[in-house]
Sequence to fold (256 residues):
Amino acid sequence: MLYLDSIGLDLFSLINDHPPIVCASLDDIKSTVDFLYSMGFTALEFCRICGMCPEILNSRVSDIVPVFTFLLREARVDGSDLRRVVNRRPRLLACNVKNRLRPTLYFLQSIGISEVNKHTNLLSCSVEEKLIPRIDYLEKIGFSKRDAVSMVRRFPQLFNHSIKDNLEPKFNYFVVEMGRELRELKEFPQYFSFSLENRIKPRHQCCVEKGVCFPLPIMLKTTEAKFHGRLEVCCNSSGPLRTSPLWCTNCDVNSK
Fold:
């Protein structure tokens, strides 16, 4: 405990989050610390990594080396990008290559996500407990298997979203309040990445008040200034033509 305190770790938080640390070998901890420092991680980065995934302190160097090897050789992470990848998802270092990282890599590749090195945060996820249930949920709400896979392939971050706290409430709002079609979600799965309370609801309500119906990307991706600017243009002129990017199929701007 004195050693961990000497390298800047918060002992109370560490013990509270990961009680087994009190039984860890001092020699193993020192070896792990020295190894990560040798890989170029700073003291500040190391403290942050341990704060996010204290299990690393119970890992041996012999457990961590295969993870780095896997990331470089199999996940095709560039050596210069290794620190950023680990800092973004420290839990990777506490995962078993054979039982977790490699199966997840193969699954992601099997559904068409070829550049897994751009989505390494997903490698620590369980295929059975997290990835497949998201695809199953998309099928449950009406998408075909092919369309569900296409959506997560185009926007892999969908795998990171909670079904109960994110996907369900946003989908319910999309269908009940917005009254829009599944086709739009298929084309723009990024919809689920926007805040329901701070972005989706306010902008949809503005559109309803102004009698305008924008395609999802225009409604959600634009800055506040551009969004309200588009609203003013639509309200101070005739409705958008069908050939206009402001036109949304099945949305009648004159009937709202």
Remarks:
- The chain has three domains: 1-125, 127-189, 194-256.
- The CA atoms of residues 215 and 248 lie 5 Å apart.
- Confidence is low (pLDDT under 50) at residues 246-256.
- The first helix runs from residue 2 to 6.
